[in-house]
Recover the amino acids of this structure.
């Protein structure tokens, strides 16, 4: 099975389209979307519709903190994020809101676990940004490969049989072997709001046959998305960060 793993789309139609086009020619059997379909970006309805289509075709999807914040007043989002969620609520149909409300927090399948943030207490939306922060996910799960998002920067960690966790450099475009003697946690980069200094849409391909994880980056028209953010009256900082990739 070859999975295309997408996360943190954040209502960015141009980035989502670019990633789907890139994945289309790569022999993907199944899509997995790790949450935050909406928030920050100007095309929430379009992105939820695409998610629903992917789900109808068998995609895995889990819930992100921005998806959860739809319709909730008490979510712990920063000011800009909250402003966009309030704007987003008025732009989603009841059916689209139901798609987001129906997403589970985690999805386990075979020796894989899909989750938006840290796998321990996934509803607390903890960021996996270091080997130390990766450790609790390995402790609570027996999955051989855990895949998450939320950080918006691609990262890779592994855990040996003694429970020691190590970080690995992510070489974009290289098929990274997930040695069977270890367990792995891949933090997948964001489709729609990359924060590692490159304004490129991120996703990854997990190949169960060859047991390899390939992080990919795809150019997209971030200037158009930024223009739409401004035209919608959303915070300017959310537009400028898209073209800088920060
Ligand atoms: Zn996010």
């Amino acid at each position: 099975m070859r999975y295309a793993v997408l996360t943190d789309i954040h209502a960015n139609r141009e980035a989502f389209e670019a990633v789907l086009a890139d994945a289309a020619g790569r022999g993907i059997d199944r899509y997995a979307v790790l949450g935050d379909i909406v928030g920050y970006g100007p095309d929430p309805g379009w992105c939820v519709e695409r998610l629903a289509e992917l789900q109808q075709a068998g995609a895995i999807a889990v819930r992100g903190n921005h998806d959860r914040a739809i319709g909730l007043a008490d979510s712990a989002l920063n000011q800009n994020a909250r402003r966009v969620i309030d704007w987003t609520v008025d732009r989603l149909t009841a059916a689209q809101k139901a798609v987001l409300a129906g997403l589970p927090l985690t999805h386990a399948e075979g020796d894989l676990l899909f989750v938006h943030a840290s796998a321990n207490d996934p509803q607390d939306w903890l960021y996996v940004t270091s080997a130390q922060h990766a450790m609790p996910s390995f402790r609570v799960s027996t999955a051989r490969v855990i895949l998450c998002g939320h950080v918006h920067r691609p990262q890779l960690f592994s855990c040996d049989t003694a429970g020691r966790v190590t970080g690995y450099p992510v070489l974009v475009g290289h098929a990274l072997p997930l040695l069977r003697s270890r367990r792995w946690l891949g933090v997948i980069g964001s489709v729609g709001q990359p924060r590692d200094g490159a304004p490129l849409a991120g996703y990854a391909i997990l190949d169960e046959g060859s047991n390899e994880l390939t992080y990919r980056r795809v150019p997209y028209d971030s200037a158009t998305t930024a223009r739409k953010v401004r035209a919608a009256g959303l915070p300017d900082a959310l537009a400028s960060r898209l073209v800088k990739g920060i």
In short: The radius of gyration is 17 Å. The mean pLDDT is 96. Residues 178 and 212 are 6 Å apart (CA to CA). Residues 8, 10, 36, 64, 150, 152 surround zinc ion (CB under 6 Å).
